[in-house]
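To assess whether the prediction recovers the assembly geometry, we first specified each molecular entity separately, as shown.
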Amino acid sequence: MAAGHAHPLYRAGDSVVHRLPAHVKIVVAFLFVLAVVATPREAFTVFGLQFLLLVAVWVAARVPPGWLATRALVEAPFVVLAVLLPFFADGPRVEWWGMSLSVDGLLAGWNILVKGTLGVLVSVTLAATTPLRDLVSGLSRLRVPSMVCVIATLMLRYLEVIAAEARRMRLARISRGHDPRFVWQLGATVRSVGALFLRSYERGERVHLAMLSRGYTGAMPAFTTTSASTATWSLALVPAVAAALLAVSGYWAW
Amino acid sequence: MEPTDLVAMHMSDGIVNAPTSIVFGVVAVLGLAVCVARARRDLDDRTAPMAGLVAAFVFAVQMLNFPILPGVSGHLLGGALCAILVGPYVGAICVSIVLLLQALLFADGGLSALGTNITNMALIGTFVGYGVAVAMRRIALRSRGGLVATAFVAAWVNTVVASLGFVLEYAIGGQGLALGTVVALMTGFHALIGIGEGVITALTVGAVASVRPDLVYLTRSATPTLQFKEARA
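The predicted structure of the complete assembly is given in tokenized form:
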């Protein structure tokens, strides 16, 4: 998190999507994902059309799809569940390559896979077009309590510091020959987790004192937020509303 | 960094249906509202920076993988750890903020699953862990070993019960698996993960208690503020 407080998924730009106020983007992203989740799982074309909507957003944001795809790989762990489902679910079964698979399980696995993938792509799109500070000010505009916003701001500001501290401690352990393979070899790792907590908390105490000595009274300076006009809202809501209509059409077709 | 991370408990989108996601979103918002109101007793606005650093710690610790077996690694959820170190209300807020920002910034955990994730890991995880810790408080106050044992049990129970939260949500709004299979898979798996979570939580709490016992929320009121001792000639 260097001077500009960028985060790993942010891609600087000056497109329509980048310029939208953060709170609008957060709301639209949530609505879009909900629409995807509400789509019936057999409505295969609807998922394709929803994906095309996302592609349209990427074109408007001038974010290359390949760049997004590599960053969407975080979804890997839950693919495990999707792959397991056809083997463990009940109901009628089909033979495929000598394996007996449950039809219901296949559909359920597909359901998780497609919705999870679209969901990750929406999150990555939001993260790619919204800088950190805008995100927290967007949350404060959505009436998230100020205490939560203050904690979130400070967390984001010091995350990289604490993470770097954890990395240094890990390097120090490895350079002293630490190579844990089993759960009972955790001693050194765990002692550094304890040390990391102490260092984080004591850093917090120092930061707090430094803030107090600079006149901090408990209120953060108000977040500068841009309000959104009705026109902005209606433009931004287009993808979400379209996704919702597609979801509804999925119920009609099936 | 590490080969596989099978232990991610962050639910993605599509595991439970839309109405269930919304219901648990409401549960999460209400639960957090209570936490924010109650956290003011432990934490006034002026000391919020400390909570920010605790949240950063949780985030960093969740990035730290630990080995379970060769090739399989897990990461800490930190619910019980936070509850014991900073109290259940501040702890739940810190874990929720971590989950919120992981979903918004790192696409880790689906946006529609945020309510279920916060309910499982931040609310159930923290409060069940803390409940166990409070129930065992007399043991925890007796000795360092007692505190470490309490932390282990709290973290293990917290992990298993949080996975039952998932089972509940799946029973309401999931599809595909018979409930018995889900219960067996999830509790069996998390009973194992809970051991890792328990060991790390226990040893971390022990390490903190040996250096700064005043920072352990669970035993804080029992910590003597200042001891006077006779000087010996």
